[in-house]
Amino acid sequence: VVSMLHDKFLSTLDNDDMSFTPSHKIMMPEDLQEIYINVGSDDGVTRDHVLEYLTKTGCVTLDQIQKVRVIKRRSFIQLPGECTGPLINAL
């Protein structure tokens, strides 16, 4: 499944097109951070795709992911700060 998702959604993107960076600070608890990836609903990505993709890294569990928002060209993920570094490195 992961291979099919990669082939369908990510294989045509260059690594430069997929940035994994902290988004601007918004109102959320201090122990949470929000990151985003440059794929979204325009690319056919859903919330379930994002959750599966992130948990396959082994760096984060479903319980740790607080919120996922998928918009046209980006997906935003809120998770504990201690998870963001290892997750970004894995992605």
Mean pLDDT across all residues, rounded?
A: 82
| Helix-strand string | HEEHEEH
Computed over alpha carbons, the radius of gyration is 12 Å
In DSSP terms, counting alpha (H) and pi (I) runs of 4 or more, how many helices? 3
Q: Quick one: overall form?
A: globular
Query: In what order do the strands lie side by side in the largest sheet?
Result: 1-2-4-3
Structural class from helices and strands?
alpha+beta
- Please mark out the parts with pLDDT under 50 across 5 or more consecutive residues, or reply none: none
- Report the strand count: 4
The largest sheet, given as strand count, sense and whether it forms a barrel, is: 4 strands, antiparallel
Q: Percentage of helical residues?
A: 25-40%
Structure description:
The longest helix has 10 residues, at 81-90. The model has no long low-confidence stretch (mean pLDDT 82). The protein is built from three helices and four strands, in the order H-E-E-H-E-E-H. It has 91 residues and is α+β, with helices and mostly antiparallel strands. It has helices at residues 2-10, 47-55, 81-90, and strands at residues 21-22, 32-37, 67-70, 75-80. A four-stranded antiparallel beta sheet has the order 1-2-4-3. The two termini are 17 Å apart. Helices cover 31% and strands 20% of the residues.
